[in-house]
Specification:
The structure holds 2 protein chains of 2 kinds.
Chain A lengths: L1 H19 L2 E6 L2 E2 L3 E3 L5 E2 L1 H13 L2 E6 L5 H6 L5 E7 L2 H4 L2 E8 L3 E6 L13 E5 L3 H9 L6 E5 L2 H10 L4 E5 H9 L7 E8 L2 H4 L3 E6 L3 H17 L1 H9 L8
Parallel strand pairs in A: 1-5, 1-6, 9-10, 9-11
Antiparallel strand pairs in A: 2-3, 3-4, 6-13, 7-13, 8-11, 8-12
Helix pairs in contact in A: 2-9, 2-10
Chain B lengths: L3 H11 L14 H27 L4 H16 L2 H11 L4 H5 L3 H4 L2 H26 L3 H9 L4 H31 L11 H12 L3 H29 L9
The chains are: A alpha/beta, B mainly alpha.
Chain lengths: 254, 243
């Protein structure tokens, strides 16, 4: 224990200066397509990676992507393996105890997928069936929202199974995370004739605050630089460029 | 270690209760499991008696058609049969346009159909086996009495075959009880489905599945006991002499 403390104490000034330097290192879990994955050439790619590069351009720094498996991300951040986590990490109270979060950099709303032209409000699914993932935030919301006005919420183990039942007509709608619905269904040939209908749902009580960039607790300097950079790329259009490369809808939320 | 409170709290859910829903509702939990089991067993048994007769028929074509049916349904997992009926058939526009779609679009009906066809295949083989096992002496006696072929079937062969099939059939009933646990994979919430739901809500795997296991155990015990009573009554003439 003492030795570890010593090592950290010795290393701290080294890394404090590194944060000021031109290279910012982002820890990313490369197992979450389309947000992050290992490309065919072995290099990291995806929405999160492009987002990191856009932020670095805004901060006039160079990016280094450090691959790290999901469950090791926060420990690795705290041992200075990288300066920040940019890995679709949802901002939660639990995690806030361990790290500091920037403002959200995306908050993908949950959406209703149904036949093109379907109108959606709280009462439009009376006596009809809505498919969701079992034990998902969407299932809880759907039961409270449409379930109370007479819709039947059907739980599936896997999203593709609910899409199968939507195309066969067993379901009238599927309520799903927008990114999953877009990538796994609407962008595939099977999604023909279907679309996102109705509003975006991002009630924070059910769906949380969105994904943020995590920095080591107390690293105010980097936190403020990143927040500034997020604002900047939102304004100068480079955010939209990254978004449009992967998604057909607004991923930032309101 | 084991959260007993969680098990007690969730017990009504297994019976189909839970938040705001009536306990012992037919759409969830134990009643759904028993319903699926009962209807598929009754349907399977009704199908399997004529099928069993066809299986031992002297007409090669009839016998081999039934052989093919039992071979296919005993040779593939019930899970595969259920998936083919539920997800497979629904992919064809022809099926969706036909009158069958009204039934096939319901997960409940698909599960019932798969279970019935499956248990009918096994029961057919059990009954056919017992028909072949009929003692030649009984047949000779029936012929000597001047019985026609069908009268002999009705009075001698089938009743005796069904009696002798009891022990094997009790196995089939218990296997079907466990078999219904796959209904949860096509959106139904039977006992296992309820356990899976509690598991994904609480991230506690042990308690809900233990609870489900205990429920299956209790009913297995009950069925085995009932069959033992039935055997004592209808198979008494085959039991060893007690005096």
């Amino acid at each position: 224990m003492k030795k570890v403390l010593m090592a950290v104490a010795l290393a701290a000034p080294l890394f404090a200066s590194a944060a000021q330097a031109e290279t910012i290192r982002f820890g990313v879990d490369l197992n979450y397509p389309p947000f992050s994955k290992q490309g065919p050439d072995g290099k990291p790619q995806g929405f999160d990676i492009d987002m990191a590069h856009a932020l670095c351009t805004a901060m006039k720094a160079t990016c280094e992507i450090v691959p790290q498996d999901w469950d090791g991300l926060i420990p690795a951040l705290n041992t200075n393996k990288f300066d920040a986590i940019l890995s679709s990490m949802q901002i939660t109270d639990e995690r806030k105890k361990a790290v500091d979060f920037t403002n959200k950099y995306y908050n993908i709303p949950s959406r209703i997928i149904a036949k093109v032209g379907t109108t959606v409000d709280q009462n439009s699914f009376k006596g009809k069936k809505i498919g969701t993932l079992r034990a998902s935030t969407q299932e809880k919301f759907a039961k409270d929202y449409w379930g109370k006005s007479g819709a039947k919420v059907v739980a599936y183990t896997k999203a593709p199974e609910s899409f199968l039942d939507l195309t066969s007509g067993r379901l009238d709608a599927v309520f799903v995370d927008g990114a999953v619905g877009d990538q796994e269904f609407l962008k595939t040939p099977r999604g023909k004739g279907f679309a996102f209908v109705g509003p975006e749902y991002n009630d924070t009580k059910y769906f949380g605050l969105g994904a943020g960039i995590a920095v080591k607790k107390g690293n105010k300097a980097l936190l403020e630089r990143l927040n500034g950079a997020i604002d900047q790329i939102r304004k100068d259009g480079s955010y939209k460029k990254v978004q449009d490369k992967y998604f057909t809808f607004n991923v930032y939320g309101n | 270690m084991i959260d007993v409170n969680l098990m007690i709290e969730n017990f009504p859910t297994f019976l189909g209760g839970g938040s705001g829903e009536p306990v012992l509702s037919t759409t969830d939990g134990l009643i759904l499991t028993l319903e699926l089991l009962f209807y598929s067993l009754v349907g399977g048994l009704l199908l399997s008696i004529p099928l069993g007769l066809m299986r031992v028929s002297k007409n090669r074509l009839v016998a081999s058609a039934v052989w093919l049916y039992t071979y296919v349904f005993r040779g593939t997992p019930m899970l595969v049969q259920l998936f083919i009926i539920y997800y497979g058939l629904s992919q064809f526009q022809v099926v969706r346009d036909s009158w069958t779609w009204e039934y096939l679009q319901e997960a409940y009906f698909c599960a019932l159909l798969a279970f019935t066809l499956n248990t009918a295949a096994y029961t057919t083989e059990i009954i056919a086996g017992q028909i072949r096992n009929t003692h030649w002496g009984e047949i000779e006696a029936a012929k000597a009495m001047g019985m026609s072929k069908w009268l002999m079937m009705r009075r001698i062969i089938i009743p005796a075959a069904l009696r002798r099939a009891l022990p094997a059939y009790s196995n089939e009933v218990v296997m079907m009880l466990q078999g219904t646990s796959i209904a949860g994979l096509v959106t139904l919430a039977d006992v296992t489905g309820v356990a899976r739901r509690i598991y994904s809500d609480t991230y506690m795997p042990f308690e809900p599945f233990l609870m489900a296991g205990l429920i299956y155990l209790a009913f297995t015990f009950l069925f085995v006991w009932l069959f033992k009573l039935a055997e004592r009554r209808w198979l008494a003439y085959l039991a060893p002499r007690k005096h």
